[in-house]
Amino acid sequence: MDIRQRSLAELEELFKEMGEAKFRAKQVYEWLWQKGVRSFDAMTNLSKSLREKLAASFVINGIVEDKVQRSADGTIKSRFRLHDGHMIESVLIPVPDDKRFTVCVSCQVGCSLTCKFCATGRMNRVRNLDAAEIYDQVVMVNQQCLETFGHPLSNIVYMGMGEPLLAYNNVMESIERLTAPDGLHMSPRRITISTAGIAKMIKKLADDGCKTNLALSLHAADDLKRDELMPINEQNNLAVLMDALEYFYRKTHNRISYEYITFQNVNDGLDDAANLAKLCRRFPVRVNIIEYNPIGDVPYLKSEEDRIDAFARYLREREITVTVRRSRGKDIDAACGQLANKE
Ligand code: SF4
């Protein structure tokens, strides 16, 4: 069994049964979640016999770096092998001028949702990642960030492979480990969970006292178009989603953003911008417009720049906070919707 499946309380109980002092459990816990070690031998303040006992009963199923690709724009995509041989990908997106270094982590192997523009959605869902596998991505990419840019990660986004709200418990547990004082002690305000839109789970996030930011992958501001792009919309239409988001906002006051990939002549007209503006009135929200990266045989194209500019201007004129994110890491298939373990 992976020792990281055990809570601190469970470890303390176990150590008591083993005749070990309670504080030893805390030491092990800190090695695992604060220092991120991958072997019992590295736990140097434990006796050799205790390390051997632990190694005889437990494993530490760390993820292993399999391949690293570096984009001309500084973006770094890493492929990691899981203990059962499956592969996942994480992306480091650096903006050195702003001292912003963001990791985009995966939470599932594949994805059960079938968003039409997304490469991951074609892989089917194989399994959820456990909390440790999500945590490991942050630790390893943080190391990569320090080595490459001399700076630690500043932000974490759950926007890689998979739908975070369908791996709910493991995602929440990973956030607990990332933010806890005896974990990595990162600020939840620097973490964003991104969802394709599962209304009842958005409400659950609010009820569970979520402290992170929330992003909705919106991509269309009317149901007909959204049904087409994201079949999940058929069970979670925009009215239902807006109710859930308003509930989330009223309960948490955490930041909400809409992610909006523009597709040429599909969702990038001024009529679309007008529909989107209406969805920005109920609660404070910011809009991130994202350039599309075609993934081969899908019928969508990247919007022309002047259409994106006009779209963004329409929203800004209505005092909506908008950022336009030019695509990063396209040359290494690391951009939004491109994570699919190509090889
Ligand atoms: S966009 Fe996200 S939710 Fe949709 S198929 Fe891709 S990984 Fe899944």
Automatic annotation (TrEMBL):
Coiled coil: none
Keywords in alphabetical order: 4Fe-4S, Cytoplasm, Disulfide bond, Iron, Iron-sulfur, Metal-binding, Methyltransferase, rRNA processing, S-adenosyl-L-methionine, Transferase, tRNA processing
GO biological process: rRNA base methylation; tRNA methylation
Classification via CDD domains: Radical_SAM
Family: Belongs to the radical SAM superfamily. RlmN family.
Catalyzed chemical reaction(s): adenosine(2503) in 23S rRNA + 2 reduced [2Fe-2S]-[ferredoxin] + 2 S-adenosyl-L-methionine = 2-methyladenosine(2503) in 23S rRNA + 5'-deoxyadenosine + L-methionine + 2 oxidized [2Fe-2S]-[ferredoxin] + S-adenosyl-L-homocysteine; adenosine(37) in tRNA + 2 reduced [2Fe-2S]-[ferredoxin] + 2 S-adenosyl-L-methionine = 2-methyladenosine(37) in tRNA + 5'-deoxyadenosine + L-methionine + 2 oxidized [2Fe-2S]-[ferredoxin] + S-adenosyl-L-homocysteine
Residues forming the catalytic site: E89, C336
One MF term in the entry's GO annotations: metal ion binding
Protein's UniProt keywords contain Transferase: yes
Residues involved in [4Fe-4S] cluster binding: C111, C115, C118
Compartments reported by the entry: Cytoplasm
Record-linked InterPro entries: Aldolase_TIM, Methyltransferase_A, RlmN_N, RNA_MTrfase_RlmN, rRNA_lsu_MTrfase_RlmN/Cfr, rSAM, rSAM_sf
Domain Radical SAM core stretches: 97-331
Main subcellular localisation: cytoplasm
Matches recorded under Gene3D superfamilies: 1.10.150.530, Aldolase class I
Name the UniProt record assigns to this protein: Probable dual-specificity RNA methyltransferase RlmN
Pfam families linked: Radical_SAM, RlmN_N
SUPFAM superfamilies reported in the protein's UniProt record: Radical SAM enzymes
Top-level EC class: transferase
EC number: 2.1.1.192
Species of origin: Haliscomenobacter hydrossis (strain ATCC 27775 / DSM 1100 / LMG 10767 / O)
Cofactor binding note from Swiss-Prot or TrEMBL: Binds 1 [4Fe-4S] cluster. The cluster is coordinated with 3 cysteines and an exchangeable S-adenosyl-L-methionine.
Cofactor: [4Fe-4S] cluster
Entry keyword Iron: yes
PANTHER family for the chain: 23S RRNA METHYLTRANSFERASE (PTHR30544), RADICAL SAM CORE DOMAIN-CONTAINING PROTEIN (PTHR30544:SF5)
